[in-house]
């Protein structure tokens, strides 16, 4: 089956002559076209058992390359397994409204940093409230800057364990799905944190996507690490 790199190599030169691309877009196309080809050089692999030698071309490691990111996603998932607890996990999403997304386009580092801060503070603040959980929680947060239509759509995916440590750190406090659902209702109380200049209701919104065993946390993590381009149907 043809890959994205094959399409870029075959049709990229003509397409680049007919449309105006940014320097960043040109760099991405060039990286994907050259990925694992002689253009990037190679390295030698030798089996310590049978002494068989293979030559492999180097990867571009571009964060938009579907070939590189598929491997990176697998390694990232393996690394996260050690972080998973034997509890239920929840997949939550914090999304910036259009007004702030437009600002983020020109102030990426600042706005994306604030989005992470607000997401983390919202989860911690509401979980610490005895009306919801009354415990200290942690979460894995991953930034996405595009939506399903590949347009600018900043949002943060979170993988949240179904519980946390009691304030004294001596016991585990578990929550039910109903409590987590109520937590999303309480989220607006923290929406204006660090977004004080935004209009009322213009802070990040919080949505509960799914819940389940640690296996669903792996599903959520796989979703978090996807790229905008793919070589599969």
UniProtKB/TrEMBL annotation:
Residues 138-175 form the Transposase IS801/IS1294 domain. One of its GO terms (molecular function) is DNA binding. Residues 7-96 form the Transposase zinc-binding domain. One of its GO terms (biological process) is DNA transposition. InterPro entries: Transposase_32, Zn_Tnp. This is Transposase. It comes from Paraburkholderia bannensis. The lineage of its organism: Bacteria, Pseudomonadati, Pseudomonadota, Betaproteobacteria, Burkholderiales.
């Amino acid at each position: 089956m043809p890959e994205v790199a094959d399409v870029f190599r075959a049709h990229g030169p003509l397409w680049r002559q007919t449309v105006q691309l940014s320097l960043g877009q040109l760099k991405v196309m060039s990286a994907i076209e050259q990925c694992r080809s002689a253009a990037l050089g190679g390295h030698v692999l030798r089996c310590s058992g049978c002494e068989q030698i293979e030559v492999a071309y180097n990867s571009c490691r571009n964060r938009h390359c579907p070939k590189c990111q598929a491997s990176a996603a697998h390694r990232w998932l393996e690394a996260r397994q050690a972080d998973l607890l034997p509890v239920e996990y929840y997949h939550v999403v914090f999304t910036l409204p259009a007004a702030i997304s437009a600002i983020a386009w020109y102030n990426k580092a600042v706005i994306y940093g604030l989005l992470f801060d607000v997401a983390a503070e919202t989860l911690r603040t509401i979980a610490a409230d005895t009306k919801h959980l009354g415990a200290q929680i942690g979460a894995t947060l991953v930034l996405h800057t595009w939506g399903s239509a590949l347009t600018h759509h900043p949002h943060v995916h979170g993988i949240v364990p179904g519980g946390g440590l009691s304030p004294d750190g001596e016991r585990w406090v578990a929550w039910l799905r109903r409590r987590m659902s109520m937590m999303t209702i309480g989220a607006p109380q923290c929406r204006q944190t660090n977004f004080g200049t935004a209009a009322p209701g213009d802070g990040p919104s919080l949505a509960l996507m799914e819940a389940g065993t640690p296996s669903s946390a792996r599903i959520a993590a796989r979703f978090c690490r996807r790229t905008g381009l793919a070589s599969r149907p």
